Amino acid sequence: MKKRCFLLFPNFLDKAVTLSYDDGVRQDIRLIDIMKKNKLKGTFNLNSGLFSLVKDENYRRMTKEEVIETYKDSGMEIAVHGYKHFSLAEVDTSVATADVITDRIELEKMFGKVIKGMAYGNGSYSDSVVDVLKKCGINYSRTVVSTESFVIPEDWLRLPATCHHNNPRLMELAKEFLAPRTSTRFYANPPRLFYLWGHSYEFDDNKNWNVIEEFAELVGNRDDVWYATNGEVYEYVTAFDNLQFSADNTLVYNPSALTIYLNYFGTKIKVDAGETASLL
Ligand SMILES: [Zn+2]
Fold first, then answer.
1. Separation of 280 CA from ligand 1 center, angstroms?
2. In this predicted structure, what is the pLDDT of residue 182?
3. The whole model's pTM is what?
């Protein structure tokens, strides 16, 4: 009885949006401004062994000090992206392990937080890399796979996105995501997650900041969408999956520290942290 069709996001919402941006480049400052203006939240995946690296005019990573200043009180999540941004499927297991765990340790020291999220450098992963992540205590890791759908993830260590911001269907997908439900049967209306990813230097490379501004204006600042970081989505959905049901299926117990919201065959139920609620 852990069917995702019963899942609602906080405050009984059935739509969530999260962003995921990589590399810690200077354009993240402008991106965070746009996100904040539109109430969007997201996760910034950082390589703590590559601060200050400059590749060209647009590709300038922030210094360690700038990184702390930019993200610390931004409301955004910080996640691992590999200490040196290795393609983890192409290096020895020991190298991959060091790349993940060193980045995790450095970022945790910088931000004073437990960091359990990640995005694969160059989207590179394999089954053995996934095992490395498990050993390094990573809860979820984003790939560069786009589904062009809004399904709630099942395989958190091979996490796909809805799309990259350069996807020509971006606005079409955003409109589809926001469109009212057509069926009155609750199980035909599963909750939706829009997961957008990219690199903010690409907006300067392609001179297309309008893409993210238009997306943020359409999808942001709404009462019917939950805006969350990747980690918040992971924690909420995992807490939902960990709900315990009584043997006769009349009670639901929430052992997590989060309030969980359900649509149980059309009835909206809220189960507070550590509490039991009736399903009748
Ligand atoms: Zn990267």
1. 48
2. 76
3. 0.96
Distance 168 CA to ligand 1 centre (A): 21
Given a cut of 90, whether residue 5 has pLDDT beyond it is no
Give 55-59 contacts, CB < 8 A, sequence gap 24+: 58/27, 58/201, 58/204, 58/205, 59/25, 59/201
Instruction: Identify the CATH homologous superfamily for domain 17-227.
Output: Glycoside hydrolase/deacetylase (3.20.20.370)
Evaluate whether 47 touches 85 at the Cβ level (below 8 Å).
yes
Q: How confident is the model at residue 25 (pLDDT cuts 50, 70, 90)?
A: very high
Cα of 251 from ligand 1 centre, angstroms: 45
Domain boundaries, the chain: 17-227
Of 172, 137, 171, 170, residue with least CA distance to 156:
137
Q: What is the pLDDT of residue 224?
A: 96
Which residues does residue 267 pair with via DSSP β-bridges, in sequence order? Answer: 264
Radius of gyration for the alpha carbons in the chain, expressed in angstroms and rounded: 19
